[in-house]
Predict the 3D structure of the following.
Amino acid sequence: MSQNKKLPAGGLLLAGIAAFAYYKYSKLSSAEKENLVGDLKAKGQKLYDEYVPEKYKSMFSKNTGSGTASANSHFGEGNAYSS
């Protein structure tokens, strides 16, 4: 049987890119890190707002006033339950 010999090289390449990205991130100042993370959050929110359908947004929304019960109302700390 013949095996694909390019698979390990691709994995090594991906690991090298990840290591380089970590190195560059570790050399950033704290202000630059905050800007980078803030920018990524803003882009993620923009993608979420544009592409996620409304029915899924309502399922995952933090507002519980829409008539759906939150997980916290069903799974509390356990102090209200007896054995």
In short: The CA atoms of residues 44 and 55 lie 19 Å apart. The radius of gyration is 22 Å. Residues 30-51 form the longest helix (22 residues).
